[in-house]
Design goal:
Layout lengths: L2 H10 L7 H20 L5 H21 L19 E10 L4 E9 L5 E9 L5 H18 L4 E6 L2 H8 L9 H10 L5 E6 L6 H10 L6 E4 L4 H17 L1
Helix pairs in contact: 2-3, 4-6, 7-8
């Protein structure tokens, strides 16, 4: 039989979640071939097996942690309590060009913007990596503004879980995840949370704004007009909820 027929039969056998093993193996072999062809980097049999096992282990751990359904998440953005600030980040990704656009905003205990930014990134491998890059850039920005008590929020569950887990990350985004973990030590208190996309629209609009700008931009106590609209929505929901 051909590969597609065989793979369909594999996934029909749900015993012990066996389908994840050949699927992950096929992906790892494809990645190894790409690295060899495009970058001249050859991976040993042992290296490929190690990557396969670590990815499968990580996926199983992620599935164990993902318990709450998306529709049960809070749809109202909540301000932090002093002395904390809250940082929201998001990203847009152009798959064909491998370009990403990061957006992030820092808000105070009244829900008002302290600072925000929009950054363009080239040569980004995949959508998961873009989220980690956006988080890292937001982290750098809030550190440059000298805040020490920070709550980070993003709507990528995978990114947040990877940051919070102790195990090392061997995926393409792993380099950025490990860099985030290193920079965490420069804050007195910092935590990372997964949130509903509906309460992350200010940072989403900041990422979208970068697509129409010629260069990276940063604002202090201000927002571009498109993002201000969603800030007003967040604040109105907060008031009505109270």
């Amino acid at each position: 039989m051909d590969f597609c027929t065989w793979l369909n039969l594999v996934f029909q056998n749900r015993k012990h979640d066996f389908g994840e093993i050949p699927a992950t193996t096929a992906w790892a072999l494809w990645q190894a071939n790409n690295k060899s062809t495009m970058e001249g980097k050859r991976q040993s049999f042992q290296d490929i097996c190690s990557i396969i096992f670590s990815i499968i282990k990580e996926m199983r751990e992620l599935n164990d942690k993902i318990l709450a359904p998306m529709n049960a998440m809070n749809s109202i953005w909540k301000p932090p309590q002093e002395p904390f600030v809250k940082v929201n980040f998001d990203v847009l990704f152009k798959t064909t060009l491998h370009h990403s656009y990061s957006g992030f905003v820092i808000k105070n205990s009244r829900g008002l913007p302290i600072g925000c930014g929009s950054i363009f990134n080239k040569f980004v491998s995949d959508s998961f990596t873009t989220k980690a890059i956006a988080c890292l850039q937001a982290l750098d920005f809030v550190r440059e503004m000298s805040f020490t008590h920070v709550k980070m929020e993003g709507d990528s569950r995978t990114t947040i879980v990877k940051i919070n887990q102790v195990l090392p990350d061997f995926s393409d985004m792993g380099t950025y995840i490990e860099e985030i973990k290193i920079k965490v030590s420069s804050f007195q208190h910092i935590s990372f949370y997964h949130i509903d996309r509906r309460v992350n629209m200010v940072s989403h609009m900041l990422a979208k704004e970068r697509m129409s700008m010629r260069e990276d931009r940063f604002w202090v106590e201000d927002l571009p007009t498109a993002a201000e609209i969603h800030l007003a929505i967040d604040l109105s929901r907060l008031v009505s909820h109270i």
